[in-house]
């Protein structure tokens, strides 16, 4: 049997936002700071393996509970003692439910038709009389109510005041669920709290919990693989240097930028966010933005990537580097180092190209520090998406993580190996992306990420 929940509460407290986050649908309803955005009941269904387990109904905001409660109290005739549902039934049959209290009537009809209600509270608001009257009116439906404290991460939240007020009204079970930045275990807590109120629905709710956590794990693993593919592509990328060196440098810059942006967009799709929610070039970092791109040394400093006396110092292992140009390595030293550590198979792959090097031909490749920067940026984005609610409308906020292994020291051996395999990169001609060795390298890098 499908569990039906009505999402109820005052105007503009985040009811639609809660639905967006629970359904992972940024397009559900309309999220706005304007009051009374939702004017009708709108539903969504959560299913597991094709079986519908939960139906959620977004309802209009309650706006005039004080007047409605006063009206309901006058509905009893002399000598009558109606209980809450009977009083509401009389109200819903009358003309006031179609006129003055039309919006409230929509909410009450949906709650009466549901198994329970989620009462969403803007925890930043003071506990006013109108909210107590709303709870009195909703309580008349005779359905279990679970208060949901929204915006609890705000500095203006009044959580303790609300906890005390709800306890005075007999509502001791509640859940904290910030729809903009939901806690990682937020959905588990919500469904577990519902299971305490609705024991018969526990099996459905437990299936939802298990499915949600399985999907979260699968998304994270898929995200790490996208990042690993990006890093392998960029590490293995090479361009032959001809007469127009500057143009070729710029062309490779652009290729790497576009490849990172493709990874950003793939991560956004994976987490069901919009394409415009983030761009590789301007992801926020702490109190600012990454206005500089991958190839600006200042960007490396911002992220704490250690570059010694400059971008070249962080990558040069000796005197073998011919030239360093804005995050690109130009010369034979990278190749020779890769051959020294790669063994016979690498030498076979690189035989012809090594002869070209010895004849004076040169190639461009991506500097180690740029690979570090790519890893740091994308890992931070992945963490930000994991913690972002689908009701969020502000720019994606990225916190600087530790990532010490990526900011300094040697790159993972698998990336050094990738430098010796140009066909592992989709940015190179004649790429062989399905090669077993490449797939194995990607999996090893996923494990290290």
Portion of residues in helices? 40-55%
Main sheet properties:
6 strands, mixed
**Beta fraction:** 5-15%
- With helices defined by DSSP (H or I, 4 residues minimum), what is the helix count? 16
Major beta sheet, strand line-up: 2-3-1-4-5-6
Which class of secondary structure composition applies to the elements? Answer: alpha/beta
**Straight-line N-to-C gap:** 42 Å
Uncertain runs are 30-38, 282-293, 307-326, 331-336, 338-348
Structure description:
- The structure is a single chain.
- With 449 residues, the protein is an alpha/beta fold.
- The protein folds into two domains: 195 residues, 3-Layer(aba) Sandwich (Rossmann fold); 232 residues, no CATH class.
- 47% of the residues lie in helices and 12% in strands.
- The chain contains 16 helices and twelve strands.
- A hairpin with a 2-residue loop joins strand 8 and strand 9.
- The protein is elongated.
- The chain starts with a strand and ends with a helix.
Brief descriptors of the model:
12 strands; 47% helix; 449 residues; 6-stranded mixed sheet; alpha/beta; 12% strand; elongated; Rossmann fold; 4-stranded antiparallel sheet; 16 helices
Could you give a quick summary of the protein structure above?
By secondary structure, the protein is an alpha/beta fold.
SSE layout and pairing:
Elements: E1 3-9, H1 15-23, E2 42-48, E3 51-58, H2 65-73, H3 84-93, H4 102-112, E4 116-122, H5 129-139, E5 145-150, H6 159-168, E6 175-176, H7 186-197, H8 202-236, E7 238-240, H9 245-270, E8 284-285, E9 288-289, H10 297-302, H11 311-315, E10 323-325, E11 328-330, H12 333-358, E12 363-366, H13 368-386, H14 404-407, H15 413-418, H16 436-448
Parallel strand pairs: 1-3, 1-4, 4-5, 5-6
Antiparallel strand pairs: 2-3, 7-12, 8-9, 10-11, 11-12
Helix pairs in contact: 2-5, 3-4, 7-8, 8-9, 8-13, 8-16, 9-13
């Amino acid at each position: 049997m499908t569990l039906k929940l009505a999402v109820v509460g005052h105007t503009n407290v985040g009811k639609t936002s809660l639905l967006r986050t629970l359904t992972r649908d940024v397009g559900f309803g309309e999220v706005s700071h304007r009051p009374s955005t939702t004017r009708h009941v709108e539903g969504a269904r959560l299913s597991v393996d094709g079986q519908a387990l939960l139906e959620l109904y977004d309802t209009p905001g309650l706006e005039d509970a004080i007047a409605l409660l006063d009206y309901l109290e006058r509905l009893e005739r002399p000598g009558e003692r109606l209980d809450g549902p009977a009083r509401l039934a009389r109200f819903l049959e009358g003309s006031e439910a179609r006129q003055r209290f039309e919006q409230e009537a929509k909410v009450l009809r949906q709650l009466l038709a549901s198994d329970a209600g989620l009462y969403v509270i803007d925890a930043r608001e003071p506990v006013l009389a109108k909210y107590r009257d709303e709870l009195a009116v909703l309580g008349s439906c005779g359905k279990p109510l679970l208060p949901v404290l929204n915006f609890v991460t705000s500095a203006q939240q009044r959580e303790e005041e609300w906890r005390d007020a709800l306890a005075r009204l007999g509502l001791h079970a509640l859940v904290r669920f910030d729809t903009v930045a939901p806690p990682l275990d937020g959905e588990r807590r919500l469904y577990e709290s519902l299971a305490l109120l609705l024991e018969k629905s526990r099996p459905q709710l437990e299936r939802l919990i298990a499915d949600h956590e399985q999907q979260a794990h699968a998304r994270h693993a898929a995200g790490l693989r996208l990042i690993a593919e990006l890093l392998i592509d960029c590490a293995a990328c090479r361009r032959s240097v001809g007469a127009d060196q500057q143009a070729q440098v710029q062309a490779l810059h652009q290729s790497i930028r576009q490849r990172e942006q493709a990874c950003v967009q793939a991560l956004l799709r994976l987490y069901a966010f919009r394409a415009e929610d983030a761009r590789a070039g301007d992801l926020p970092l702490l109190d600012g933005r990454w206005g500089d791109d991958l190839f600006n040394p200042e960007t490396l400093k911002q992220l704490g990537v250690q570059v010694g006396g400059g971008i070249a110092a962080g990558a040069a292992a000796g005197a073998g580097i011919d030239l360093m140009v804005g995050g690109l390595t130009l010369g034979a030293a990278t190749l020779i180092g890769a051959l020294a550590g790669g063994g016979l198979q690498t030498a076979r792959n690189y035989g012809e190209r090594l002869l070209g090097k010895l004849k004076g031909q040169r190639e461009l490749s991506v500097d180690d520090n740029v690979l570090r920067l790519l890893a740091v940026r994308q890992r931070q984005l992945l963490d930000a998406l994991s913690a972002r609610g689908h009701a969020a409308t502000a720019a994606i906020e990225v916190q600087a993580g530790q990532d010490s292994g990526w900011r300094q020291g040697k790159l993972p051996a698998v990336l050094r190996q990738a430098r010796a395999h140009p066909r592992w990169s989709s940015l190179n001609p004649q790429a062989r992306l399905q090669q077993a060795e490449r797939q194995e390298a990607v999996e090893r890098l996923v494990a290290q990420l």
